Amino acid sequence: MYRQLGLSAEVGAARTLLDGTVTKKSLRPHRHDVLLAVVGVLSGLVMWSLGVYSSSQRTYLPAWAALVPLAVLGAMELLRRSRPSVALTVGTLGVIANEFTVGSLITVLIFTDLMYAAVVYGSPATARRLPISTGLVTVAVTIGFLAWLRTPQALLIGVVTGLVSFAPALTGATLRNHREAAEAARLRAEQTALLAEMDRSQAVAAERARMARELHDMVANHLSAIAIHSTAALSIDRADTSREALGVIRENSVQGLAEMRRLIGLLRDAGAGQEAVALPTLDGLDALLGQARTNGSGSGLDFVLHDDRPPGEGALPAPVDLAAYRIVQESLTNALKHAVAGTVTVRVARADGLLTVAVDSPYGHRTGPRAPGSGAGLIGMRERAELLGGEFSAGRTGGTWRVRATLPAEEKAVEA
User: How many domains does the chain have?
Assistant: First the structure.
């Protein structure tokens, strides 16, 4: 999932931090760990040379024996990040061995840091277990020494044990929890920002697709008529034909320019002083078919409208009304481009909460001038129907090319 959201690199680094896993590059000691090791060992050597021991009464081993655990734990400081469990295990053995010598306080302090590092940089399981296990050890040591020595001073042994083991483990667990919470919050914020950007990109893409459909449906009709009649004027060298074609070309040029201006008005900010522009509806089908008759007169096409919608029905939802109009408009444009001479029939019906639009045009081999098609019109009609939850089909049936769209006619259906 993280890789799909584009966060794989950062999430991988976060999981390396939280899970305690490392790469080959991280096996090199961190410069801070090297500094801790050097300072710790040098401090222990200084205190040993000054004769400062944690227990000078242990004389069964020579004094220099205290330097061995010190050196071992100092070396483990180099592994506190890359191998925290190994460092803690060896460090535990080292601090136990330290108790059989004159003892070095620095060795015990280094052990507390190894305990802390094991919780902070170790695996999640280790980080969960160490505070609990060290707490239990502290309690067991306290009770054991109380039962053995039977003096209140035995409590000090338990306190020291807790300070050496339980306190650093608890501190490391607290710090790790804060780090994990901060990292999780950061990742959630990045995911939220990325999802918001994806939503924005999808919204922009959807708006661009809508604008493309609108531009195609508004202008393609006029440009197709211009292309057909200009081709006819060039191929038929008669003055009356050229004059008629130029008239149609001029009319469609003016109407296409008006449609472009209307689209520009829709795209402009309302705050720039642009007035709201009324969107076309099915009530304008008569005018649309009248324009189609003018444009298709030279191709032997006639256009007939059958509006079977019951009178008194409520108004259609605005998106449905516009989509139905555009589907009829594009179907008429395709008929002007490709249909043979004959009658193009447009039927509109409304029943059972559905609006049905069907356009039948004569299909066959056309010998006269025709405008090229790109297929974008059929794609746009299908998109309009599917976006509203409707159905669309287009294809040849015998000698007829039929376009049929079924759209929801109820407001609730469109909103859903």
Answer: 2
Residue 23 in tokens = 């790469």
pLDDT tens for 197-246 read 888 888 777 777 777 766 666 666 666 667 666 666 666 666 666 666 67
Residues 328, 186: one domain?
Answer: no
Crossing angle for the helix pair 285-296 and 318-338, to the nearest 10 degrees? 10
Query: Between β-strands 391-397 and 354-362, what pairing exists: parallel, antiparallel or unpaired?
Result: unpaired
Last residue of one domain, picked from the residues 150, 167, 195 = 195
What are the pLDDT digits (tens) for 349-372?
998 889 999 999 998 776 655 555
Contact 325, 364 (CB under 8 A): no
- Domain residues for 389? 281-416
Which residue is listed with tokens 């200084």? 46
Q: How far is residue 180's CA from residue 192's CA, in Å, rounded to a whole number?
A: 18
Please indicate, yes or no, if residue 41 is contained in any of the structural domains.
yes
- Residue at token pair 């160490």: 130
**pLDDT tens-digit profile of 138-171?**
899 889 888 888 888 878 888 888 899 999 999 9
What is the sign, positive or negative, of the torsion defined by CA atoms of 131, 135, 138, 141?
Answer: negative
Strand partners, 401: 361, 396
The answer to whether residue 398 sits within a structural domain is yes
Q: Which of 152, 178, 195 is the last residue of a domain?
A: 195
